Amino acid sequence: MSTHVFDEAIALQAQPDGSWTGHTHPAYANMVGPFGGITAAQALNGVLQHPERLGDPVSLTVNFCAALTDGPFTVMARAARTNRSTQHWTIEIQQGDAIVMTGTAVTAVRRETWGVDEEPMPLCPPPAEVPPPQVMAPMEFVKRYEQLPVTGQLPAVWDGSGHSSLTQIWVRDNPPRPLDFASLACISDVFFPRVFIRRATHVPVGTVSLTVYFHASTEQLAQTGTGYLLGQAQAQAFRNGFFDQSSQLWNEAGVLLVTTHQIVYYKQ
Amino acid sequence: MSTHVFDEAIALQAQPDGSWTGHTHPAYANMVGPFGGITAAQALNGVLQHPERLGDPVSLTVNFCAALTDGPFTVMARAARTNRSTQHWTIEIQQGDAIVMTGTAVTAVRRETWGVDEEPMPLCPPPAEVPPPQVMAPMEFVKRYEQLPVTGQLPAVWDGSGHSSLTQIWVRDNPPRPLDFASLACISDVFFPRVFIRRATHVPVGTVSLTVYFHASTEQLAQTGTGYLLGQAQAQAFRNGFFDQSSQLWNEAGVLLVTTHQIVYYKQ
Questions:
Q1: Chain A partners of B83 at a C-beta cutoff of 8 Å?
Q2: How many domains does chain B have?
Q3: How buried is A96 (Cβ within 10 angstroms: 0-12 exposed, 13-18 middle, 19+ buried)?
Q4: Can you count the helices (H) and strands (E) in chain B?
Q5: Tens digits of per-residue pLDDT, A194-248?
Q6: CB–CB of B244 and A259 under 8 A?
Q7: What does the pLDDT look like over A175-191, one tens digit per residue?
Q8: Percent of chain A with pLDDT strictly greater than 70
Q9: What is the residue range of A165's domain?
Q10: d(Cα A103, Cα A94) in Å, to the nearest integer?
Q11: B261–A240: do the CB atoms touch at under 8 Å?
C-alpha cells in the first residue's frame, strides 16, 4: 500500500531532545511558503505522536509568524500541564533560529454525555449533484482537495462585485483518505480568504491565527471515512487590515465535526 | 480620583527577569477561583504593559489549565517573533511551580483599509428599555457588570426546558469604566456557559480555551467610552463533555468591536 501524500507531508522524526523534525512538502505549497493547514497539521502531529499524550484533540490554536521556507523545520510540543482527563500543550515550530509558528492545544479523554448539535447542517444539494468549480486557484495545495462549490466560489471575474463572504462547499482529500484529527485540522484551513469572496478583488492576505475546536470522536471520524465534508465559511468583520472568518465542517450524515475560526491579515 | 476595581485587579508589578507579578482579586471571584475573563485580561496586560510591544491586540488565545488559587501569580509574556508590523507573543501564568494558564497573542500596527461589518448588530430594544435580570447568579464577578438581558437570560427555573443557547445582553462595567483592550478581553468571557441556557440544567462547567479577535481600534474604543455593549452568544455543538460558544460585542453605535470563541468543559 502506498503512502498518501498527506501522511508524507505530516511525517515527523523524533529527536533525542524530545522535539520533532519535519520537512515542507511541495504537494502542499501555497503562493508563498506552505499552505497554513498543512503547517497546523504538522504542529498537531507533534502532539498526536507524543508519547505523553493524554486523550484526543479538543482545541488547537496556531499563529503563523512567518511563511515557512521550503526545507526542514523543528516542532516542539510540550505538555505544559496534565490533569486527570485534560492536557495542555504548547507548540512551536522553528526554522534555524527563527520561530515561524507558535501555538497551543488541549487534548482530553472524552466521555459520553448529553449532547446536541445546535448549528444545523445547511440544506445543500448532495455532492453527486454539484459540478466542479469553474475556477481553480493555481496554488499546488488546492489540487490536494476535491472541492465542489455549492455557493460562494472564487470569482470568475475579479470586478469588485461581491456582497457576501459566505461559502459552502463539499470537500475531501484528493485522492480520498480516511479522515483523522490531523487531516481535519488541515481541512479547517481550506477555505479561501473571505476577502476574495466578499470583494471579488485580489489583495495580499495571510492567516495570522487559526483556532480549531474538535467536536468529533474517533468513532465519528471512522464513520466519516473517505466521505465528503460540507464546509461553510463566513466573515464577521473586515477592519483596518484584518478580518475574521468562522467555519464549520459536517460529515455527509450531518454530524458537526469541527468549528473553526481564524483572523487574517489583508492589505488595502 | 480613585482607581477602578478592574484596574486594581489587572495591576502587574514588573520583575527583574522580565516577568510580572499579579494577584487574584476578590471582586472578580467565580465559583471556584477567579472569573476566566479577569485572568485573560491579566494575561493580556502582561503584553500591553510590555516595553517591547508593537501595536495593538489583534488576537488573544488563553487556555485555562487549572483554577487559580487565591493569591499571587506570575505572568510571563515573551515576544516570540517581531515582524515589521505584527508581533507574536507567548504567555504563561504560573503559581508556584505549576502552570495555570497558557496562551498566545498577536499585536499589530493597524492601518486604515477598506472594511465592512458583515455580521450586523441584531435588532434589540435600547438599554433604557430593558429591565434588569430576574435572576442574578451568586458569583462575585457578576456584580462587576451591569447586564440587561434582551433574550436568553439565566433560567428562573432549572427544569430542563431550554431549546436554544442564544443570549443577547446589554453589558458594561459596573461602575462604568472607559473601554480599553484589557476590559474588552475580560467582557469577552462574560456570557454564562451556553449549556445552562440550552438545557436549563445545572452541570459543572469550566472554560478550557478562549480566543478573542479584536476588531476595534483605539479610536473606536475611545468613542465607545463607558457606553453599553450589545453582546450576543450562542453554541454550535455540545458533544461528549465539551461545547463551543461564539460571541460578538458591538458598541451602541453598531460597530462590531470583538468576535470571540471558546470551548467549555461540561460534565454529564
A1: 65-66
A2: 1
A3: exposed
A4: 5, 14
A5: 999 999 999 999 999 999 999 999 999 999 999 999 999 999 999 999 999 999 9
A6: yes
A7: 999 999 999 999 999 99
A8: 100
A9: 5-110+126-266
A10: 12
A11: no
